[in-house]
């Protein structure tokens, strides 16, 4: 498995003529991009067809609003700022600059060569400007927010022509539980090569910041288990402890059945919590987290369907804090205490299904109708698709993101490494101890294992 914190040696410039020619054709509407790396080709697709960024943009916009940050995020910013300042003189010696941004791509601070800083200001590579992909196209900062792992963007690989003279290397720091980006550290040079030590600078900074987040996740997980253990003897309802992202840390036997997760088994590794098979529950917990951030005494209730009954189940949500910081909630099934959560007006409708999945074959962007995808398999941070056109790499960075994009389109997570298209399940093979394997309709009858904790969700989905 590839180490996402490792940053390979950073070369200076690719075959810029080939990439520039491909960029010109792609901007004009062609999809073939010979000589362009898949990461860049996928980014170009997002910029052109999803974000609709003007490739002739000459300066990026300022951030619309200031986002709020949790205390652990502030710790990450401080750590990255310290690392950036410590290498600022070395970066300045090669006419470069180093930048720290938040999860929206908003530049928080930068250091480096004064002449390069002045040139960067012309394009708004300066504090409070927004360098997300949807605002600035393919670039070291924005593309690092979209991808897992280090990102190198050189010359005409940038989506906007005005930035073709820049070489940038960025890496995001991500929440160890949700995998959502928190910040980006980026090194940029104008018409030159990146410092030879840039790879180690980025790797060391991310490793230290992630270690702090891992310790925080371990502490918050232990506190949620303690809160669950303390509350359970006093509770007549089924009980579970969830983090602020809606992932399960621990649940009793009844709650585990309702959510399709293991019972009484807190995750030893704080990065491997369980995602309940109840999208409504995840939404309710995230709403409760926002309310509790504003009012620590807030307690709420709502009703959700659990797939085990024709009628919705009542539940109560109570926030849990550690040192004044919200770390999760205790969810009681069958209880109805606290303020009623708002419900959508009228009947709930699932979101519109994506019309296609974006993948790559060599230097081509391939747009796949959903029925052509049999299943997705993760290999490290890459997602590989078994399709009617063969095995292709998905544009989604990480199986969690792929699952989230297609959760309401008939795709189901059946294993930590597999998401399957339920309409492409041909047969179900039962093991002697209750385990399941799915025989997929993919031309080779590939068998996909179902992990033990996902068996209840698969049985419900396939009505078996």
Automatic annotation (TrEMBL):
Q: Which InterPro entries match?
A: GAF-like_dom_sf, LytR-like, LytTR_DNA-bd_dom
Q: Where is each HTH LytTR-type domain found?
A: 357-464
PROSITE patterns per record: HTH_LYTTR (PS50930)
The protein in question is named: HTH LytTR-type domain-containing protein
Naturally occurring in which organism (per UniProt): Amycolatopsis thermophila
């Amino acid at each position: 498995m590839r180490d996402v914190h490792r940053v390979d040696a950073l070369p200076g410039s690719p075959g810029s003529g080939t990439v520039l020619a491909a960029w010109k054709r792609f901007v004009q509407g062609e999809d073939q991009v010979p000589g362009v790396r898949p990461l860049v080709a996928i980014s170009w697709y997002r910029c052109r067809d999803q974000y609709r960024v003007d490739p002739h943009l000459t300066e990026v916009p300022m951030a619309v609003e200031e986002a709020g940050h949790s205390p652990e995020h502030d710790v990450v910013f401080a750590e990255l700022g310290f690392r950036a300042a410590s290498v600022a003189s070395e970066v300045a010696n090669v006419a470069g600059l180093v930048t720290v941004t938040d999860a929206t791509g908003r530049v928080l601070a930068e250091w480096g060569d004064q002449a390069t800083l002045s040139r960067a200001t012309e394009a708004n590579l300066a504090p409070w400007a927004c360098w997300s992909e949807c605002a600035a196209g393919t670039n070291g900062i924005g593309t690092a927010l979209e991808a897992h792992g280090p990102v190198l963007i050189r010359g005409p690989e940038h989506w906007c022509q005005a930035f073709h003279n820049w070489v940038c290397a960025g890496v995001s720091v991500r929440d160890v539980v949700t995998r959502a980006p928190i910040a980006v550290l980026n090194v940029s040079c104008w018409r030159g090569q990146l410092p030879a030590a840039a790879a180690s600078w980025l790797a060391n900074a991310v490793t230290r910041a992630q270690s702090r987040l891992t310790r925080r996740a371990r502490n918050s997980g232990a506190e949620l288990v303690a809160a669950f253990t303390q509350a359970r003897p006093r509770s007549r309802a089924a009980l579970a402890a969830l983090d602020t992202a809606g992932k399960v840390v621990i649940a009793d036997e009844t709650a585990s059945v309702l959510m399709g997760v293991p019972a009484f088994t807190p995750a030893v590794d704080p990065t491997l919590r369980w995602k309940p098979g109840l999208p409504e529950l995840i939404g309710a917990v995230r709403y409760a987290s926002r309310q509790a951030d504003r009012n620590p005494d807030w307690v709420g209730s709502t009703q959700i369907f659990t797939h085990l009954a024709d009628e919705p189940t009542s539940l109560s949500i109570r926030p849990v804090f550690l040192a004044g910081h919200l770390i999760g909630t205790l969810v009681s099934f069958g209880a109805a205490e606290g303020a009623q959560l708002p419900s959508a007006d009228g009947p709930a409708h699932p979101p519109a299904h994506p019309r296609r999945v974006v993948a790559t074959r060599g230097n081509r962007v391939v747009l796949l109708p959903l029925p052509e995808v049999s299943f997705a398999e993760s290999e490290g941070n890459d997602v590989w698709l078994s399709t009617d056109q063969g095995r292709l790499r998905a544009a989604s960075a990480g199986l969690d993101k792929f699952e989230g994009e297609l959760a309401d389109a008939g795709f189901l997570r059946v294993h930590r490494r597999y998401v399957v298209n339920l309409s492409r399940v041909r047969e179900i093979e039962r093991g002697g101890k209750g385990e399941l394997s799915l025989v997929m309709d993919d031309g080779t009858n590939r068998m996909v294992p179902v992990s033990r904790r996902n068996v209840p969700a698969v049985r419900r989905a396939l009505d078996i």
